[in-house]
Design brief:
With 264 residues, this protein is an alpha/beta fold. It folds into 2 domains: 36 residues, no CATH class; 196 residues, 3-Layer(aba) Sandwich (Rossmann fold), CATH 3.40.50. The strands form 2 sheets. The protein has a 7-stranded mixed beta sheet with strand order 4-5-6-3-7-9-8. Strands 1-2 form a two-stranded parallel sheet. α3 packs across α4. The N terminus is likely disordered.
């Protein structure tokens, strides 16, 4: 049996499987015995679509309301907090995503708040639909998620780095074939054991009220401050630059010490 793998599509489009098969059949390159392997929902970003002051804020988590209070749902919990605090009510939800629109009163940025209606490990497929529907680039995407490696109530914001075992981030990276978006990782603590079963049960467990209060008191206000800075700067985050600057400063300091030792 012949096999054809399709992984190249038009720039910034998601093409349905039926449309791809139709095009191939019309070109007489396959027959009914040909197996077609399609990598679905591939996204090729176009720099022309990077729109300043328009952002998709996406909170990761498992479907609500069943999994609403899990540690793994802290990204969605932040989006709910943001919606409630800013009294956001313009609902544009679809079958794939809960979507609300909002204009930030300070910076006049257009915000699209998204909560995927799917399980964490397939988040990318739902998010790519929202990004394409709004004709935005992946660089306009900001993702909020839980993080075991960050202390409870602390926040790590970065443009760099991989998924570090987080299935939601992995799904996004795989779907977009890129990790060039802002990741806001919210510390939920971690169990003392590194046993995979224990860690899984911890992540999927409900957040104790005292831990949630720590996160809402410390992490959420910090995130809002960083978002305010981001919106005012038209989406230019300093996270990546500041990390590079610190790295260069360390290298220069080390080199300076080495030079001083040589002279001595």
């Amino acid at each position: 049996m012949n096999k054809i793998t399709i992984s190249s599509i038009k720039e910034s489009e998601v093409i349905k499987e039926s449309e791809i098969i139709k095009v191939i059949k019309e070109s007489n390159t396959i027959n009914d015995n040909t197996e077609i392997l399609i990598k679905e929902n591939i996204y090729v970003p176009s720099k022309a679509e990077i729109i300043p002051n328009k952002f998709i804020l996406c909170g990761l988590g498992n479907p609500e309301p069943s999994y609403r209070n899990q540690r793994h749902n802290i990204g969605k919990i932040f989006i709910n907090y943001y919606i409630e605090k800013h009294n956001i009510s313009i609902n544009k939800s679809t079958k794939q995503n809960d979507i609300l629109e909002h204009e930030d009163p300070k910076s006049k940025s257009s915000l699209v708040l998204v909560k995927p209606n799917c399980f964490m490990n397939v988040s990318g497929l739902n998010i790519i639909e929202a990004v394409n529907d709004y004709k935005l680039d992946i660089s306009n995407l900001i993702v909020f998620c839980d993080d075991l490696e960050t202390e409870l109530g602390k926040v790590k914001i970065s443009l760099v780095g991989g998924d570090r075992g987080h299935n939601g981030l992995k799904s996004i990276n795989d779907t977009f074939c890129s990790n060039d978006y802002l990741k806001v990782k919210i510390g939920v603590g971690r169990p003392t054991s590194h046993n995979p079963k224990v860690v899984s049960d911890f992540v999927l467990g409900s957040i104790p009220l005292k831990d949630l209060e720590v996160i809402k008191t410390n992490a959420f206000p910090r995130i809002e401050k960083e978002l305010d800075k981001l919106f005012k700067n038209n989406g230019n985050s300093n996270s990546k630059n500041s990390n590079s600057k610190k790295s260069n400063e360390k290298k220069n300091k080390k080199k300076s010490n080495e030079d001083s030792n040589k002279k001595g």
